[in-house]
Design goal:
Length: 327
């Protein structure tokens, strides 16, 4: 099920401009400036533009039609050039870093290209997904993105990996049913709210019972709610929903020929992807994240959009941050 009112390219450009300008003004207010800041902002803006534009109506199809099979590699080259803007502009260029970025960008593209004649759900697809997840979770992001003081290392790694995943699966593999869109459809409000509320009714008492969380509201931090919510939505919830629902659950369902098997397996894998969070092995985190993945996956199935499941995901994370403390 696709979004019935999906944003077009021009409204998406407006959204991108507003969010990027907000980030730039906030960074300037914090005191950042100069050549390094300009290069960092430029790289961020381009990566973020690609991430959002691909969610606009008709953009991926237009790019694929215009540039053909090479569109994925063209985006890969563009991603590397953007990295060079960052590295040269911040005086952090090193051949070892550049080589690492080349590997992060072009190994997934090569795997995707090698599966050109294979149906979705072949081994190359799953290796590519696993590689992208490992890059986000375990790559030396602070070494790759040292300016400014590694504070944006995670964000840049996420943006780069989303761009690579778009090049690999949307342009090269032409995978259908991802739901990579920003829009709204019929009954989506019900699905999003129902998923959020029912999960909360399960996760809050369970989390307290297993001593994973305790009620500890941070009312003094509520002024940061708007910016933090946007950050969680676009740099945590959206990328994870793209990877685990739009790609992994999608292809597991195709490979197993069972929507239910794909849904449950992806939910469990989502849970296990958190096993290293806050100490290894964190089985309490695995349990609650698996249950969360079940509800996120249900929302994605019902709406056909990672935007809807990302809203639930972001709402859960924001509520957790402001009202609870992990014990």
């Amino acid at each position: 099920m696709s979004a019935t009112r999906q944003l077009g390219p021009l409204p998406m450009l407006g959204l991108w401009a507003a969010l990027t300008l907000t980030g730039a003004l906030y960074a300037a207010w914090l005191g950042y400036g100069g050549r390094g800041f300009a290069a960092t902002l430029t790289a961020f803006a381009i990566f973020f533009l690609v991430m959002l534009l691909f969610a606009a109506r008709g953009v991926p199809e237009s790019l694929a039609a215009r540039f053909g099979a090479g569109s994925g590699f063209l985006l890969g080259v563009a991603v590397f050039l953007v990295y060079l803007i960052y590295a040269l502009g911040t005086n952090t260029f090193a051949f070892t870093r550049a080589a690492a970025i080349v590997g992060l960008v072009f190994i997934p593209l090569a795997l995707a290209a090698s599966a050109a004649r294979q149906p979705p759900g072949c081994w190359q697809d799953f290796v590519t997904i696993a590689g992208i997840w490992v890059a986000v979770k375990f790559s030396p992001s602070h070494w790759l993105w040292p300016y400014p003081g590694g504070r944006l290392a995670y964000v840049f790694t996420v943006l780069l990996c989303v761009n690579v995943a778009l090049a690999s699966f949307v342009l090269l593999r032409r995978l259908n049913g991802i739901g990579y869109s920003i829009g709204w459809g019929r009954h989506w409000s019900f699905f999003v709210l129902a998923s959020f509320i029912v999960f909360g009714c399960i996760a809050i008492p369970l989390g307290q019972a297993i001593h994973f969380i305790e009620f500890a509201p941070r009312f003094s931090e509520w002024k940061s709610l708007p910016l933090l919510s946007l950050g969680i939505l676009f740099f945590t919830a959206w990328p994870e929903e793209f990877l685990f629902r739009g790609l992994l659950q999608n292809m597991l369902a195709r490979a197993s020929k069972s929507e239910l098997a794909g849904w449950w397996t992806a939910s469990l894998l989502f849970g296990f992807s958190h096993i290293t969070n806050m100490g290894f092995p964190n089985w309490r985190y695995v349990l609650l994240a698996s249950i969360a993945g079940f509800f996120y996956g249900w929302t994605w199935r019902k709406t056909g959009s990672i935007f809807a499941s990302a809203l639930v995901h972001a709402a859960v994370d924001v509520l957790w941050h402001f009202l609870f403390r992990t014990t």
